[in-house]
Amino acid sequence: MRRFGSRHSIGGLTLLALFAAVSLAGHLHGDPLTLAGEPLSPPSTAHPFGTDFLGRDLLARTGHGATTSATVAGASVALAALVATPLGVATGWFAHRRGARALRWSIELLQVVPPFVLVVVLLGLTSAPDATVFGLALSPRWRLVASLAIGFVPYLVRVVHAATVTERRRDHIEGLRLLGVPQREVVVTEVLPNLAPAVAVQMLLALSIAVFAEGGLSYLGLGVPAPEPTLGNLIAEAGTQLLGGAWWYAVIPGLVLVCGIAGINLTADAGTDRMVGLRSAAPSDDPTTTSTLPSLYEPSPIETPT
């Protein structure tokens, strides 16, 4: 298990390093909007990734596009976690209360709609020039961030809820409650630190999905608009040029996108392997509880007051 996790972590970090190297090289190479050469020039010494249909350098555009894609994905997952963590803790810690149950059922109702469909609908509703999100006039990039974040909130709430229910059942947590320690103190000092590893791993998995989703939405014309480059709209631009033999136009941004997604997934897998190993090795407070993480696809139990 440890060797397998180590291979995952090495492979994931290597791919992420390649992704970061392309991003850095693109920023150092030049302006992604400047006409730098002949249109559709193949890779060369002057233009290592070739040029696009207007003659703009593809290394610069791919590097800036990778940064944009990663920034949008990271901001959306961070915003989703910021909203989902307190909601998940509340529905898990106060599981027997009507308000928490109603909130959890409302969030589960949102999960009936596939997240990608939900994001597309939200982007469609906010695509008008005068559209606002919660009363705020946002740029297309931040509308995309907000829409992706809303799509991830139900998933992350479910993860945090299940982990909170598991932590709440542990003997030492029950002991602190019986001793009269304030619930806020128990949650802040005991529960949240134990939730952090599980939430971090799930955020990594969500990040890989967000990178893929940003690429797909930009490919469909729903993401960050041109001329600002993203990996998705670079691949979309290249679609009409492939028949003309400009293979580098789509292949190179596509490989960079795959490196980012695969690197994040492998790193998340290594984190999961590490967490499962630690939980299996640690003594359990309750012999009836499982030593693995709560399933994301099974309904987490609702506690009743004793």
Question: Which CATH C-level class is it?
Answer: Mainly Alpha
Q: Roughly what is the average pLDDT, rounded to an integer?
A: 82
Strand segment tally: 0
Strand content: under 5%
CATH superfamily: MetI-like
Shape descriptor? elongated
Task: Indicate the low-confidence ranges by residue numbers.
Answer: 284-306
- Oligomer classification: single chain
Helix content: 55-70%
Summarize the structure.
With 306 residues, this protein is mainly α. It contains nine helices and no strands. The protein has helices spanning 2-29, 58-93, 98-110, 115-125, 140-168, 171-178, 183-219, 231-238, 247-281.
Architecture overview:
The protein has a single domain, classed as MetI-like (MetI-like fold, Orthogonal Bundle), CATH 1.10.3720.10. It has helices at about 1-30, 60-95, 100-110, 115-125, 140-170, 170-180, 185-220, 230-240, 245-280. The model is unreliable at about 285-305 (pLDDT under 50). About 40% of the residues are buried. Helices cover about 65% and strands about 0% of the residues. The protein contains nine helices and no strands. The chain is elongated, with a radius of gyration of 23 Å. With about 300 residues, it is an all-alpha fold.
